[in-house]
Amino acid sequence: METKKWEALLEAAELGSFTRAASRLGLTQSGLTHMMNSLEKEVGFPLLRRDRYGVRLTEAGERLLPAVRELLRSVGRLNSQIAAENGRKRESIRVAAYSSVCMHWLPTIVQQFRWACPDASVDIRMGSVDEMYRWLQEGKVDVSFASRQDKGRYDWVPLWDDPLLAILPPDYPIGERDSFPVTEFDGKEFLMPSLGFDLDILRVFQETGVRPDIRENTLVEDAVVVSMVEHGLGVSILSELVLKGRRDNVRTLPLDPPASRQMGIAVLDLEEEAPAVRSFIDYARRIVAEMHR
Fold first, then answer.
1. 3-class DSSP assignment, residue 56
2. Local structure of residue 1 (DSSP, 8 states)
3. How far apart are the two ends of the chain, measured CA to CA in Å?
């Protein structure tokens, strides 16, 4: 049974759409449909439920999910060992990270790591918080730089508590305040960032009981959020790391009460990782600590 079919199944279930999954996998929608029909025929029962809302796993598919992920992780390890046996000299460390981490942390981490370990290469891919943890569980990456979430079993290496800041239009009346009450978001039009920030921000609102006016069609990228706030279209929350180095015409204030997202590295099993991966994590931990002294 081809593992590509299982990978496609996970993509379709994760995205809830054959069209989006086919686009990400480089397939046609009819090709993906044929692949899923073939897989269901091989296993002998339906794995996906199709309706006008999209696709989702059947109960049987949900029960198979942990075994499928373990299968793909095992195949990933097998392929790595085969490549090594075929004479690959450079050990590859597969890293997933947010765009802000790729911009502000990874250049220095990778540079210093390469100086110390010239025989190891670092492959980097950017994604959302869901992708960070999904890629890790599926064995597609070795380490994921992300904010800590409740998304399965993994080992966690904390790096830094990234403060969350209120993002306000330039004419927003703040007076002499040096912080922004979270309660002031209540009822205001709120521009929700995408790529996982919604999980960290919603946690703040849930803890304080605040209910801003969040529009579903404003779930957009960080840079777009800042531009929309700059033009007076709402308020938002972003983190210090995301805003680092930006020169936009917006006002930023720490939240009251203070809030942050815990940034760190997720790995499946730290003790079982290859020496090069553990060394890379050690470099990351030391360098991030130096950056934020």
1. strand
2. -
3. 52
Residue 157 backbone dihedrals phi, psi, to 5 degrees: -115, 105
Instruction: Say yes or no: 104 and 247 in one domain.
Output: yes
In a domain, residue 83? The reply is no
How far is residue 290 CA from its own chain's centroid? 24
Residues 273 and 222 both lie in one domain: yes
Q: Where residue 167 sits, what CATH number does that domain have?
A: 3.40.190.290
Residue with token string 């081809």:
2
In whole angstroms, give the CA distance from residue 261 to residue 98: 13
Whether residue 65 is found in the same domain as residue 111:
no
**Structural tokens at position 115:** 């100086």
pLDDT for position 218: 58
The sign of the torsion formed by the CA atoms of 20, 17, 265, 67 equals negative
Say how many C-beta atoms besides its own lie within 10 A of residue 91's C-beta: 17
Quick one: how far is CA 176 from the chain centroid?
36
As a whole number of angstroms, the distance between CA 228 and CA 236 comes to 10
Q: Is the pLDDT of residue 112 over 60?
A: yes
Question: In the chain, how many domains are there?
Answer: 2
Distance CA 82, CA 74 (A): 12
**pLDDT tens across 183-236, in order?**
999 999 999 887 567 888 988 999 889 999 987 655 677 888 899 999 999 999
Judge if 283 and 225 occupy the same domain: yes
Instruction: Identify whether the C-beta of residue 180 lies closer than 8 Å to the C-beta of residue 254.
Output: yes
Both tokens assigned to 197? 């920030």
